[in-house]
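fyi for ur records
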Amino acid sequence: MKILLTGVTGYIAQRLLPVLLEKDFEVVCCVRDKNRFNIKNYETTKLSVIEVDFLKAESLKKIPKDIDVAFYLIHSMSTQEGDFGNMEEVCANNFKECIDQTNAKQVIYLSGISNTEKLSKHLSSRKNVETILSESSFALTTLKAGIIVGSGSASFEIIRDLVEKLPFMITPLWLKTKCQPIAIRNVVEFLIGVIDKEETFNNSYDIGGPDILTYKEMLLRFAKIRGLKRRILIVPVMTPRISSYWLYFVTATSYALAKNLVNSMKIEVVCKPNSLAAALHIDPIDYDTSIKLAFDKIEQNQVLSSWKDAQTSTLLNDGISKFIEVPTNGCFKDVRTRKLKENNTALNKIWAIGGKTGWYYGNWLWEIRGILDQIVGGVGMRRGRKNDTELFTGDALDFWRVMVASKEEKRLLLYAEMKLPGEAWLEFKIDENNVLTQTATFRPLGLFGRLYWYAVLPFHGFIFKGMINKISL
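which gave:
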């Protein structure tokens, strides 16, 4: 059976893909930029990758006609620019018109639980997409989930940030809202389970775990599992704007995502009863076990995907290749070299940079720069990294994005996603003579960009020097 998988660089699809391949399906992956998908991670002949942008109908001609089932896992809520509702509507219409021209008999769509008349913009958009996809020649199977709990999921990481950073929380009223969390393992089981199941065609199912909890209960149970004592005070005076800023400054979310999450969290997301779990022989995992399973993966350094790696702005919409070639004209550079006794140690240090490891020198200055970036609406240093020792093209790394991560070429290239009056790259490369070259490149935008470079130049002098010295030891 040939399956089309969309949203491949997103959290859910990265968990689903290995399972599809294990079950011997032939999978066609749709990505906006092939540079962000490392096909070498999958040793199989049953995987192919095509470049498709669902906002551009013309690009969908690359989708093969002989597919049997398609997964619609496209999501735009975390975008920082444009109207995500309009974007999701355009994507859904383009997808539907394209799949109608193929042999696909079933589309499987993962949506959000929407069992009340008053919906947030996010849930309204999800429901609108379902309506669009249902008006087609293929059969639609819709699975609706609320909070998804798993290592690297947005919900899990936000709860983790709140619990581990704040011993005492003054919180908004939406912490009293009830929801029905579901483990990521169960989500994948449901997605796999409904493939080619005719009894699920043109049907919609709410999927959730066995627990119905308020957000406050979720935070306190998380704290108990982590062995932390936490107190929570709920106050009625927090406006949606204040709540959004509260989430933005305490957790690793962007402000755009925080705002949309707050609007959704005011609405109960509890499943309508159905027999799908029993029909598919799925045993729902309780919330506490979901948290423990997530930490098992984190402690083993086996986080397969993270919501932080999903593209959250239009910065890279034109593709990573646009940023791989570091410019030379009109740029300021800080270039430093060191002769290495051997390159393996330095290479391992380069691949472990950022996140928990830090930046080897002046970490407090990096943190201050992250705080300043966050104050002006940037990503700050909160994203960390998905894996402590491995890096892949497209990964988020603190306030950088990985453009090139090639151990064969002994080269790591990062592009800055912080707020800047210009563009910045940071590159590490070890040549055949065991010489490490560390290059910081800044292409200024206008006069302010040039003034910015000269303002931070004194700090570069010892930060970059200290960093390369530590790496080359």
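The longest strand covers residues 435-444. thats all i got for now
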